[in-house]
Write a structure and sequence with these properties.
417 residues, alpha+beta, 2 domains, 10-stranded mixed β-sheet, 14 helices, 10 strands, 55% helix, elongated
């Protein structure tokens, strides 16, 4: 409290001795009212002193708020990572258009079955250059005691794995390519023999960029699976899914929208989408499954951050009631005290946000190590900007109770002490 008195009286005496209004050189002069400018400058200059002097309490506040904000960034990063991962695979499907069963709009978590005559009927539509069949079959893969849902993609002339991170692509019968995260989870390496669809397959290679939150992809050759089915080595459901999607290449100069409408008119059993539309549909499906829990966790983290800021500010005001009373006694207005409290909240929050970025990096690395199939992207520019603005807003809201207590402090309290 003595430091505050010395600061205030020293500044006022210096200005009066020089024959000029208090704090004529204050950077806020002209923004504040005539009688508030000097004291508000004192508040700004003295606020960091207060925070440094109460270093233990300030550090604890910063760390608690940083932990809550780091959780927000991590959860938002999980959401952003899932969205990117989910849309990445369908968006990179070859072909300008993709035909699938009418009423089905997703590759993720959906099963499409097309009639065998759909392929030649679509091929006759003007503007269609080539068609590549693709079979999709959701199955359960087990190895030892571990069980994982997977999605088998059997391709013919296009639609195979885009990136091989270990081994090679499919070159021989009875070979498959397995998603790298699925392989690591089950201890599979290229060259291993695995039991899959009640048949022995050789893992030719491991693919990257072929996973999603629910069922990573396993690739096989369509002709190989059909031969195995005809030989009686594969289950009956394979025949029902022997044609799931049609990847459509268009002739140069064709209008995709017109070709799409004509396909859906000529072949009413199919709906046609662009790869980008399928990606967005899959993202909406992920949000339907995981969006509500993630939003709840994010909301809880923001509530925790708000409560931490509010409690620490209120405790800080109670601790400095004598100093606030001195300021009121020498002429400070209530708005000065309110600015002091809000300024402290913003400074603590900004310091906490910097620490939160560091904590979020550590949390994202931990998630990548523990569950590499779930990427975390906590540092998108829009995400950081939104979180920073939200944190400043939280600081202002959380300071309401502390401001209310500070502005009603009795100046006579200083004489009681």
């Amino acid at each position: 409290m003595l430091e505050l008195i010395k600061e205030v009286t020293g500044l006022l005496v210096r200005d009066l001795a020089n024959g000029r209004p208090p704090h004529a050189d204050c950077p806020l002069r002209g923004r504040a009212s005539k009688d508030l400018g000097s004291l508000w400058c004192v508040v700004l200059r003295f606020l960091p002193v207060l925070l440094i002097r109460d270093g233990g309490r300030t550090l604890l506040s910063v760390l608690c708020v940083a932990g809550a904000i780091a959780l927000v960034l991590t959860f938002e990063g999980v959401r952003a990572g899932l969205h990117r991962q989910t849309r990445s695979f369908p968006e990179q499907l070859p072909g300008a258009l993709v035909a699938m069963q009418s009423g089905v709009a997703n590759l993720l978590g959906a099963r499409s079955v097309l009639p065998q005559n759909a392929r030649p009927r679509v091929a006759r539509v003007p503007g269609v250059k080539a068609i590549h069949p693709l079979a999709g079959l959701p199955v359960v893969f087990s190895r030892g005691e571990q069980i994982s849902p997977v999605y088998v993609l059997a391709y013919d002339s296009a639609g195979g794995p885009r990136s091989i991170v270990e081994g090679r692509g499919i070159e021989n019968p009875d070979e498959i390519v397995v998603d790298v995260h699925l392989a690591h989870r089950h201890g599979i390496r290229s060259g291993d023999v695995v039991q899959f669809l009640d048949h022995s397959f050789v893992v030719a290679g491991l693919s990257g960029g072929t996973t999603n939150p629910f069922n990573p992809y396993v690739y096989a050759r369509l002709e190989n699976l059909i031969d195995l089915y005809l030989a009686g080595d594969l289950p009956e459901e394979l025949a029902q899914s022997a044609l799931s999607f049609l990847l459509i290449d268009l002739e140069d100069g064709s209008d995709p929208t017109a070709v799409r409408r004509e396909i859906e008119r000529s072949v009413p059993e199919v709906d046609v989408y662009t790869p980008a539309e399928i990606g967005e549909n899959d993202v909406r499906r992920v949000e339907g499954f995981l969006g509500a829990p993630l939003s709840l966790l994010i909301a809880i983290a923001w509530v925790v951050a708000t409560l931490v800021v509010a409690l620490t500010l209120y405790a800080s005001v109670l601790h400095r009631l004598g100093e606030l009373a001195v300021m009121r006694a020498i002429g400070a207005h209530r708005t000065d005290l309110a600015r002091l409290v809000v300024g402290e909240a913003i400074l603590v929050s900004l310091a906490a946000f910097g620490a939160a970025l560091v904590l979020a990096v550590g949390l994202s690395r931990l998630v990548d190590w523990a569950a590499p199939q779930y990427p975390v992207e906590p540092f998108g520019p829009l995400l950081i900007a939104r979180a920073l603005v939200s944190q400043v807003a939280v600081a202002c809201v959380a300071s309401a109770f502390a401001v209310r207590r500070a502005v009603v402090v009795d100046p006579a309290l200083v004489f009681a002490q």
